[in-house]
Design brief:
The chain is mainly α. Helix content is 65%, strand content 1%.
Length: 535
């Protein structure tokens, strides 16, 4: 194994150890439950059904859509569900060995799978940074900022989201497009982009950006128009293979290649794009629940760094800028721009690696000793460091916070004459939760009931708790009425709730020691192999 590969492996181990340590071990959002049900159907019977599910659940019409043969299907991309099948099979075997609830163990394994996949995004980002000629140290800084100072940390460890899988495919496609000297680069680029679209179909809006970048790359390299047409055709054919599989899955589920599962929720284009652009753009950037700058303040610097990055890397600048601009404009108009019960910019998450790429030359300059103290670089160092630190603290406090608690309490305080001081802000609600944890200790979870793993039963009890919201004495009394109330009252960490799930204590300690050892080994390797780049 050469030095570069050892560096990438070490970087992955550094990040994945912390991700495993802070993982929730839960599926979480209803979107994840639907994708998990599809993965279970694939593993059990080789079908694409999302059963068991409720087709009449308000606001979740694309989770349980009546399709072919009288069965119900979800409208989400199938790629994450396919990747999760081995985790489900392994989880069932593990549950039989440990004599634990099979549903809980398989859900935990699927959630932990996302924590294993997400650090690969940071590794690919590091590969791209090095490909453009920057040092391994800068690549390591960039990977760690993306891993721990952006919502990738939250979406990578707190459930089963499609965004990490989409981001990985999209970033890998961008890296391959930027590496034309690699064998079959255009073919692999098209397949990676196709896998991204198989995770989230709206990724197809970025196709023109890749074609434009490919054309600009051909011109920058002084190659002929025939070369561009050949490479564009290879890219398109590879993408079309994935597109054909997506079309086949639509036909198998809904009887038409053009029906994606969203046709009931959004029967017309005006329903799909019903948000006023001004409102959507403001909220995507500034909302205290999902705003880009509220959770990733360092992203603001990317816009100031764009001109210098454009002068140095024109093709990559057009690619990064185009991906962000198309995504931003699309989701600003999108009806469900908020992304559901989430924290941070869910739909803009895939753009974060591309925003950081715009900052790479500035980070490289700030690293170099000969730029320290010079103007304006001397002033930029504390600004960038301060914004990255703020972003890290926001993500770190969020890893403890059970997000459903925030949205349930928002509903609770709507029925009360006064709001809490943190109302409307997830970062402030996270701080409030940590303060409560330090005061209350562990005693507040002692009244919890037995674990409920059947999703229809969970939904029914949730609806009952919400119907009785006016009778609750206080917020703790209100939260205890929900099924599996530990998920609302304990830190959202697998290592905290693992005993409650039935795992033996030695397994808990072994898991923590394993995760810390993996991260420490990765840190040692990163420090060692990053330094070799200067020898």
């Amino acid at each position: 194994m050469n030095v570069s590969m050892r560096f990438y492996v070490s970087l992955y181990l550094l990040i994945v150890g912390f991700y495993l340590l802070t993982a929730s071990g839960r599926i979480g959002l209803s979107d994840g439950v639907a994708m998990y049900n599809v993965a279970q159907s694939i593993a059990k019977e080789g079908s694409l059904s999302s059963e068991p599910c409720s087709p009449n659940l308000p606001g979740h019409l694309n989770h349980c859509v009546l399709g072919e043969h009288g069965r119900y299907y979800a409208g989400f991309g199938l790629f994450p569900s396919l990747v999760a099948v081995p985790a489900i099979v392994g989880g069932k075997c593990l549950s039989e060995i440990l004599h634990l609830n099979a549903s809980l163990v398989t859900r935990t394994c699927v959630s932990l799978l996302t924590a294993l996949v997400s650090p690969l995004i940071c590794v690919v980002l590091a590969m791209w940074i090095i490909r453009l000629g920057y040092s391994r140290a800068t690549a390591a800084i960039g990977a760690c900022i993306l891993a721990f100072a952006s919502p990738l940390w939250n979406y990578g460890v707190k459930g089963f989201f499609s965004e990490p899988y989409f981001t990985l495919g999209l970033l890998l496609a961008a890296y391959l497009l930027s590496s034309p000297q690699l064998p079959f680069a255009s073919l692999l680029c098209g397949l990676a982009f196709g896998a991204a679209c198989a995770s989230r179909l709206n990724g197809t809006i970025l196709f023109p950006v890749f074609i434009l970048s490919l054309a600009l790359q051909t011109r920058e390299r002084g190659l002929s128009r025939a070369h561009f047409l050949r490479e564009a055709a290879i890219f398109t054919i590879a993408l079309s293979i994935c597109g054909a599989l997506i079309g086949w899955s639509n036909y198998a589920r809904f009887g038409s290649i053009f029906k994606t599962g969203y046709h009931l929720a959004y029967p017309t284009m005006s329903a799909l794009f019903s948000t006023p652009w001004g409102f959507g753009m403001r909220e995507l950037l500034l909302s205290r629940e999902v705003g880009l700058f509220s959770f990733v303040p360092w992203a603001l610097l990317a816009f100031f760094c764009f001109p210098s990055f454009l002068r140095m890397h024109r093709v990559e600048a057009v690619l990064c800028g185009g991906i962000f601009l198309c995504s931003f404009l699309f989701f600003a108009k999108y009806d469900s721009w908020h992304g559901g019960w989430v924290a941070g910019p869910r739909f803009l998450l895939p753009t974060l690696p591309f925003l950081f790429m715009l900052m790479v030359p500035s980070v490289e300059k700030l690293r170099c000793s000969d730029s320290v103290g010079q103007m304006p670089w001397g002033m930029r160092r504390p600004v960038i460091a301060g914004l990255v630190l703020i972003a890290f603290l926001i993500q770190a406090t969020g890893t403890f916070f059970p997000l459903e608690r925030y949205y349930f309490l928002q509903l609770f305080y709507e029925q009360r004459p006064v709001n809490h001081w943190w109302s409307g802000s997830i970062p402030l609600a996270s701080l409030d939760f940590l303060y409560r944890m330090t005061k209350a200790g562990r005693g507040q979870a002692q009244t919890a009931r037995s674990i409920i793993s059947d999703q229809p039963d969970i939904i029914q009890e949730q609806q009952q708790a919400l119907a009785d919201i006016s009778t609750a004495a206080d917020e703790d009394d209100f939260l205890r009425r929900f099924p599996n109330s530990e998920n609302l009252m304990l830190p959202n960490l697998f290592v905290v709730k693992v005993r409650w799930l039935g795992f033996p204590a030695p397994a808990v300690y072994g898991y923590v020691i394993f995760a810390l050892t993996v991260s420490f080994g990765g840190l040692v390797g990163v420090k060692r192999y990053a330094a070799l780049s200067y020898q």
